[in-house]
Amino acid sequence: MSFIPKHYAMDDAQKQGGRLQAVESQLYYSPNSTRTLSHIPPPHVTHDRPMKNPFLPTPDERGRYAFESIKVSDYHSPLWWSSQFEWAAFIPRHSVFKGPIFGTLKHSPDLQELYHHGTHGFGMQPLQMHEWNDLAEDLSLAIVTLAKHSGTSLLLPVLPSIFGYRNFFDTGQEALHNIERSREWFSLWIGALCYVVAAVNAKTKLQPDSNSWEEILVQRGCHRLWIEGVSSSGCFETSVDRAGLLLCLDHDKHRIDFFLDNNVPVWYKWNDALKHLSFGPTNDQQESFLKEPSSPPVQQPPWVEFFAKRALENQRTESLETLEQKQRRHSRMLQLPMSTANVFEWVQDESDTWKRKSVSKTVNRSTLELYGSSCVRYDPFRNEFDCCRMFDPGTESSRTIVRTMASFTGEDVRTYQCINNLPSTFSNPYGNSVKFDDSPSPHLTSLPNIDTLESHIRTICALHFGFTGPPPNAHPAQPFDISAQKNFLKLLGIQWTEKRAEIFKKGSMASMHDFLDSLAAKRFSSIRQDEWDLPREHRATMHLNIRLKTIRKLAAGTKIYYMFLLPDDGDWHITTTYAAHALMLCRLAHQYNSQDLAMYMLNQGMPFHTMQSAKSLPRAPPSSVTSALHTPRREKDHIFTVKDYQVFSERLKAYTAQSPRAARAALKRGGYTWRSCTHVLFSTVLDGPMVWSTDHDEYICAIDINTGIEYIDDKLTDKELELFCGMYICSTGRGSQIAKKSWFPLAFTFENSGLDYGFWTENSENIFKIVSDNVAKRQPISLSLWASRLKGSKQLKILLASSNEAAAKLITGW
């Protein structure tokens, strides 16, 4: 990459993430990594022999290459720099097999999922093999195309098919072993793709008029969907842990800035030679090296922390369970649902890293039978099994691996090289199979009968509006026509059905209808004193509520927030965006602490914040995750398909995994933003804000009206909000004019609309499912059309405004 100028000096600001360490009796320093190096490989070139290709095994005396001796984990440690293998520094050390493109590599097939040909033996299912073939060809074409554009010269490894995923084997175990080897080998090719993308980005930075890597591939015939799908894996992010490389400061013609800019670890031998002084460790790093213990601390296996977090969340879930949910959980514990539950195996990959791998439901029972009872754990809250032989190391697993693989001549190896297998065109990603799971909303209450429905309605009216009306049978029934029935249920977010119409024969419906009608019309004096808990005369008046006394008002411009300073608070304080929501929290059980209140609001899909004093938070640079935030583009008259929706869904999942701040902020936003993010573990919100970003778009700042203390919480940027609703920039065919379309409404469009109940309802879920369950028949729509469709109930907006006004007056007057 001759277009990148050579770097001559470094300052301490570039070395804050560095470390000095001793490896094989030599000092090595990295300015951007604290990873421990276990060994130093020999250089590719020495004075007495030519360059050796590190991605080929050493041939035997017959000149044959046995690839069985090579492991992908061999390349998770740095190699010495060379221009041909510079790309190897970008190899990811952990799986990036995510998203709709790389997701086909996420799992190797199980024994029961293999294709068994009566004559040839065992192999991959043809459909999955076809997807892997397409991916290998697309990767090779994309890498070569971008390498030519950036002027880079690189020697690529052999294709993954050399390990045999396209072959048949005598036994299923042989097939599984070789398929897994092939799968892991793809990570090297993904590393090469990351390298050429970074090279093009570097060139674009220096030559702004040059095309982006995306446009280069589109011009070569690559579908935008493939590019979006690859980006959704997160493989291009600077947060990815990469192999890195070793440099010789005296001889290598390296461009160290290129690696530092992409957060690729670099190491080099360190001495105090004056000419390399600027490349050396800081004084603090030298002191830390002298204080390092002789042996590193023992690390716990990853499932220890995993199950500890799950236990904490289960404990909170149990405290919020309804009687019906508790009964269903106890039933699952009595009769373990081995066939229908989700089953996960904890297995080690090529780098000996433990991964939690999901199992196809078709092989649930056979998988569970492979493990002893002490090696299986069942979670009745999530209906999940976890299996691992190391849960009880003394138990033998019935799994065995047969390691056998053919050797190859030099001519054989050349047939597996990219240059001899370069396809002429990219594959069509719209032709691939679609596999994605949009999990249901986690909290919606089942309403199987009239009594349950009545209880649900009373709970809404009590918690959200303060209704404490007469006992269910104390009020005479009143006639409701069908229109009135539908309007009343719609006001509470409940779908009307003929069966549910029976509930209007109960007198309680008339009392709640009259109450809500008076509340919406602000006829407060017409509400009976024993029906509303706001008046002082009420038997359980809110004026005596202990939690109410802890509310503090925060201001951010004209926006008012309601923060609770509870005795058991940690660093953060639960804060509502509406006064009515603050009173709802006051009405919950008095034994609930801040975390219980937060979990309740999370399960209800309600907006809130976890405000923390600005003084207690360290400042930090903005989020580094960027590739997923590029709003996708579509040409004029593009017809969206299920594949488009799948890519949106996977981009979202990948981004929330990479940006905990965005995941927390999305869950606390409520509405469709919350619903799109329910795949994230709710307990992550309990961490509260971790840092105070230097980017004002990534945080919200509000000031205590009485004390002047500043409080901070995570916030989504405008670009992130576009991602969460599935936004596209669509060409209109009229010059540079564009139209913005989305799968779901933008948060600002939904909030305070006639369908924003302040919590997630049955009606909310039904609208969400209209899109997610019928993608083949749906198309993203414009912002203006979303605004029109969200007009909803005018009466709902009036009711919520009146309720919020009454709540605000109570809090202010306290």
Summarize the structure.
With 814 residues, the chain is α+β, with helices and mostly antiparallel strands. It is built from 24 helices and 23 strands. Among the domains are: 130 residues, no CATH class; 100 residues, no CATH class; 77 residues, no CATH class.
Structure commentary:
The strands form six sheets. Strands 12-13-14-15-20-19 form a six-stranded antiparallel β-barrel. It has a five-stranded mixed sheet with strand order 1-2-7-6-3. The chain starts with 18 loop residues before the first strand and ends with a helix. The protein has 814 residues and is of the alpha+beta class. The protein has 24 helices and 23 strands. Among the domains are: 1-56 and 65-91 and 242-288, no CATH class; 302-401, no CATH class; 450-526, no CATH class. The protein is globular.
Largest sheet: 6 strands, antiparallel, barrel
Please indicate the percent range of residues in DSSP E strands (runs of 2 or more).
5-15%
The parts where pLDDT drops under 50 for at least 5 residues are 396-403
**In terms of structural class, how would the helical and strand content be classed?**
alpha+beta
The span between the termini is 68 Å
